[in-house]
Amino acid sequence: MHHRCLKKCGGRHFDAMPLKIGSIVIVNWNGKADTLNCLASLAKLTTYDLRLTTIVVDNGSTDGSVGAIRKKFPRVEVVETGKNLGFCGGNNVGIRRALEAGADFVWLLNNDTLVDSGALSLANVFQDTKIGVAGSKIYFAKGHEYHKDRYTKDEQGNVIWYAGGLIDWDNMYASHRGVDEVDHGQFDEMAETPFVTGCSMMVQSKVFERIGFLDEQFYLYLEDVDFCLRAARAGFAIVYVPTSVVWHINAGSSAPGSELHQYYQTRNRILLGMRYASLRTKIALTREAVRHLWKGKPVVRRAIMDWILCRYGQM
């Protein structure tokens, strides 16, 4: 099994801090309670003398989210799309708005997260102008671990969800380093990584100018891996930053095991592999797709047919 692993980057040379203006982009779709809690945690951020704005992109919610956000957080800019554009489309609306407002960097943040007061330390790594994308250390929110019974009460809330990315190129799987491990400081070094999760991804604006935005063909899942691979090909470093801490609730209809999750992971994994993997892996993916067309679950067969017919975007 061949993985592209993380590389330590403690020896980097840092130039003068070039970035001063940032935008946080949060996509909301009928997630009123989560989004309000996320915004409340952001209100406690240490800003490190950065000028920061928050943009919530509402993807056609029907749960009263827009009114509640505007009432409780009047300084937050709410952009209404009028329909569900998915994770990619919604974030792209927010990214464009941030760039129009002159943001030096954009922090993409899931609405079902809570941030530590020091989470904005993520921006400090951009003192090294070669770094284009940076991601936080992310824990499962307390009580939302995959395997709750495995941990003591003291360990809950300190269980890793993401501490850097790993890509198994032989089998075309992207995974999170450290997932399900209790944090004992084993992931406390900043390191280069093949991808940063879109759950908490900070991007220098010049990266968007060079490579474009999230690819809306993915709609949901693996768009972050694709974006980071494009950024790396363009010469930008991708880094994991453990001083920036976020907690992720990680729940809902798109959680692992749901039909939505199976569909997008199946289709987008093949799409990603055909773009970046070796010929050997592409042949293996094709064989696997044929086998699933013959014997796979209906949702998996549908995902493969949509890939064959180039039907991307929303399921």
Descriptive report:
The protein is an alpha/beta fold and about 325 residues long. The protein is about 30% helix and about 25% strand. The protein has eight helices and 14 strands. The strands form two sheets. Strands 2, 3, 4, 5, 6, 7, 8, 9, 12, 13 and 14 form an eleven-stranded mixed beta sheet that branches. The relative contact order is 0.15. The model is unreliable at about 1-5 and about 10-15 (pLDDT under 50).
Task: Give the gist of this structure.
The chain is an alpha/beta fold and about 325 residues long. About 30% of the residues lie in helices and about 25% in strands.
- Overall morphology: globular
Mean pLDDT score, rounded? 93
Q: Give me the secondary-structure category.
A: alpha/beta
In what range is the share of β-strand residues? 15-25%
The description of the largest β-sheet is:
11 strands, mixed
Give the SSE order as H and E letters: EEEHEHEHEEEEEEEEHHEHHH
Helix content: 25-40%
